[in-house]
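Chain entry —
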Amino acid sequence: MVNRTRILVLLPVLVFLGIAGAFLWGLYFGNAREVPSALIGRPAPQFDLAPLAEGAERFATADLMQGEASIVNVWASWCVPCRAEHELLMEIRERGLAPLYGLNYKNDPEDARAFLDELGDPFDKVGVDRNGRTGIDWGVYGVPETFVVDGAGRIVYKHIGPLVPGDIEGKILPALEKARATPPQG
């Protein structure tokens, strides 16, 4: 009877230690940027967004289905990591690696335009996702996030968080190569 009571008392402690150990393992050995996306290998969500710049063309799903791999960056002017990664987006543009599209997420368009006026505009097109609905459809849960899309409009890679030095060569270029090697479906 005493052993059974002792086991019942220790059981919650052992469960707690097991859960705490799992969290600590994830914290120190896991990689939050490697969260799998359910959209990898699937068509980009349908969207049609108003342009950020007056007189510019709308940014829509059809832009991602032109037979050429492309990059979609989700950003906002209020996002400090977006400012930090912006220099790398400018590098992608300068190197002509692929069409680069911006999805301006939950942002005042005037603030977004001021951000690009200050830092430079690397984007071929920027769509305004003021209420965040398109971002939700893309599985975005924070900015910045960067996607590589193949020429048929399928998402082949998702990068969570800001791009940092080394990510272009180590992640974006390999994803673009994969996107370019992916045969069209349809």
